[in-house]
Each structure stands twice: as C-alpha cells, then as structure tokens.
Amino acid sequence: MNTHDSALAARDGLPPDARRLAMLSVAIGVGMASLDTAIANTALPAIADQLHTTPAASVWIVNVYQLAMVATLLPFAALGEVIGYRRVCIFGLALFTAASLACALAWSLPSLVVARLFQGIGGAAMMGVNTAMIRTIFPARLHGQGFGFNSLVVAVAFAVGPTAASLILAAATWPWLFAINVPLGIAAILLARRALPHNVRATHKIDAPTAILNVFAFGLLILTFGDAAHQEGWHKLLPELVATLIFFGLLLRRQAGHAAPMLPVDLFKLPLFTLSALTAVCTFAAQGLAFVSLPFYFEHTMGRSPIETGFLMTPWAVLVAVMAPIAGRLSDRYPPGALGGIGLALLSSGLVAMLMLPDQPSAFDIGWRMAWCGVGFGFFQAPNLKAIMSSAPPTRAGGASGIVATARLLGQATGAALVAYCFTLSATRGTTYALILAAVFSGVASIASFSRLVVAQR
C-alpha cells in the first residue's frame, strides 16, 4: 500500500460523496448474495423440473451455496485483515458475477451445483469483510447509520426475493434468475474499484493449513445441520458430528498462540463481543425457527396457497426494512445493549402472540403479529452489528466481520434443524413447538443484550 493509500486508510471514514458510491457498491454485492438465497429457495421446484432431477437431489442447489459460504467466511475475513478488505471485496464481486454467469449457462444439475459452489465462495468473500468495510467507509460517529443501511439492504433482499423469483419465472426460464446478477455485478465491480477505501493492513500472515481446517470444520458443521434438518439417521449424523468435533479440535490446536487467530477466540475473551455474538446466534435461530415453520402452518393447517403464504410472511420483512435504518441512527446515540434488548423483547412477545392466534385467524390477525415481530427484529440488527464491531480492536475488524456473517448463518441453520426435530415430535403441533422455541431463543437473546449494559459499565 503506497503513501496515498496509507493516508486514505488513516482517515476516519470517507467524504459524503465518496461514501455514497462506496456504499452503493457494497449494497449491490450484499443484496445479490442475500437475494440469491431467497430466489433459489423459491425457484427450486421449477429448476428441478426443467433439469429433470428429483426434489431431494435439487436441494443441493441451496445446500452447496450455504455450505460454501459458511466454510470460507472466516478465511476471507482473516485474509481481508492482511491484504485489505477492498481487495477481498472486489475479488468476491468478480467471482460471484462470473459464477452467476456459469449458473445461467448450466446445462445439468452437477454443472449448476459446481457453479453455485463458486457463487457461495464469492458471496463469502463479500460477506466476510462486509461490516469491516462499512466500518472503514463511515466515520466512527456514523457507524450505526452505516450498519442500519446494511441491515436495510439485507432485509429488502429477503423481502423481495420470493416475489422477484416468481415474476422472473412468470416471464422467463430459471437461468435468468442468475443472469440478472451479471450486469449488476459488473456495475458493482466498477464502483468498488473507484470508491472503496483502503484499510491499514495487519502484519501477520495467513496460515494455509489453518484455513483448510476451518473449511472442513465449518463445512462439516453445516452438512450435519442440513442432514439433521432432513431427518437423516444417527448412522449418518454421528460420524459427521464426530468428524466436525475432530476438525474443530485440530483448528484450535493449530491456531493456538497466533496473534490473530482465524477462528477469533481472542475476540471471545472480550465479554461485550461474546454477548453480542451470542445475541446474534440466538436471534437468527429464532428467525429460522419462525420462517421455516410458519409456511407449513399457513399452507397445511390453514389451507392457504403459496402466494397467500408469501403475502402473510411479508409484513415481518417489510417492518425489518423500515426499522433497520431508524435503529441504526438511534444506535449512534443510545447503548446498543438497550436497543437490542428492547427489540428482542418485542420479537419474543410477537412470537408469543403468534402462538395465541384464534382457530380461524384472518389475514389481519396474522399480519399485525408478523409486523410486530418485524419491528422487534429490525430494532435489534443494526445496534447489534455496531456492538460487535465497536467491541473489537480496529486491527481485528476482519475477524469481527467474519463472526457477524457466521453467527447469522449458524443461527439460521440451527433454527432450520430444530424445525425438523419439532416436526418429528408431532406433525400437527410441530409449528407450535417451533414457535415456542423461537420465543425462548429471542427471550434469551434479549437477556444477553441487556446484560451488555452491565458489562459496558465495568
């Protein structure tokens, strides 16, 4: 990094005009990575039909993307600290865009799965350094505003994903679901090269064996979660679980004593960071439990159509999008622990309200409860992002950024696996059990969030 770049890295955020261009580039990347998760889930039946494959086999189109993302998030976050978040972000944009083109040109299930694998790796590069990049783009006094905008982009992507997939499939074939990323990705790359700032780089080096162990440890963990969600037997789950524990043990042993461990155990020694990460995992587990189980209740129990189900789920996502920037601005003035605690208490009470639905609920009965949950969830996200990032030293922003994305994906995977378990207990009451667990998880998250107020005073 030359003298000019060093001066840029030392500056507290970018000027307003440059900041807007940089955030537009980041928003396109994060939006594409989030949107592709929602789009692929919605379009899976259509893709399976057109590729002449079975529903069980087509699930790998979704699974391999999530597996690749979680397995490579922390290595890319660590790499960002060493070579710069800007380089990793641009690499992620380029790989994601090229892989999207490969997805659009795929001629069979194996070719699509391989392309989705690389798409997930590209997405991990972007998401792994995402919040660290925002911390560099915005001045310290506006970090909450930046994280609020990021939460808004993710919420909007998840909200419009199913609708966008339906509209595209109504007018064209499934390859266009991925082809639309190509012009967006090219625009984001050009903006990123022009506007993304440099950061002060760490002096340590990346240890390749540690990165490989990290990939296997987290890859096996997500594979185990996925197999549990699909109710595989213990003859398959037990060996996967044992292998996961072995690789995590080897990873911790390999990185012991490293100044900046890839799995950032050094950051977990900070109480505020640990409580914030725990809050995130529990909250996204609650979201996963609700989002996976409620469609079964709406369609199987209430007899609603898939389109009606989509509309019934929409108030949650819409209110998250509305509240995210508001909560972000408030977190620049008030303690994130208090804001997150209040939001998660609202989420927990909203989930309890869902459990108390009448026997024949109207759309309004469901809608206001989903909106209430969305308000609570939206009030949590940006303040929690700020708490995680501000509790880590600037030199470890990459590791903290990796944990932000990892906590979200691990929480969602945990929630999905627990839904599967709830339905094995009872096919008719599985949704009720899942919502009870979701309310408990969000309640625990609220307590963890409020406890940060005590820790911050020490």
UniProtKB/TrEMBL annotation:
Main location: membrane
Domain of life: Bacteria
Transmembrane region(s): 21-44, 56-76, 88-107, 113-134, 146-170, 176-196, 208-228, 234-252, 272-298, 310-330, 337-357, 433-455
Domain called Major facilitator superfamily (MFS) profile: residue spans: 22-458
Record-given protein name: MFS transporter, DHA2 family, multidrug resistance protein
One Pfam family hit: MFS_1
Location of the protein in the cell: Membrane
GO CC term (a single one): membrane
Species of origin: Duganella sacchari
GO molecular function (one): transmembrane transporter activity
PANTHER family assigned: MAJOR FACILITATOR SUPERFAMILY MULTIDRUG TRANSPORTER MFSC
Membrane topology: Multi-pass membrane protein
Sorted UniProt keywords: Membrane, Transmembrane, Transmembrane helix, Transport
